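thread: overnight batch results

M.L. [08:02]
morning all. the overnight job finished for the chain we discussed friday. pasting input first so we're all looking at the same thing
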Amino acid sequence: MASAPGLIFLGRFLLGLGWSFALISGSALLTESLPLGQRVGAQGLSNVLISGLGAGVAFSSGFVEESVGFHWLANLGHPGRSRGHLPPT
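M.L. [08:03]
and the structure it wrote out:
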């Protein structure tokens, strides 16, 4: 069985890889769907929105964790446990 740090590393690596694939392909689809004169502005707006929303979510995550607790957030990631379908760890 793999160790917990090894699984966390693997999960975060795959998450980053998927994020990169989605970001690159989404940017390509956005620019291909617009006329040539609108591509630069739309891509710039997209980058600003992604960066701004990412920063806002990162900033607010501490407040959300403090208000509802870590265990509640962890159960969001594994909803079967919150309904009693899985044994507690």
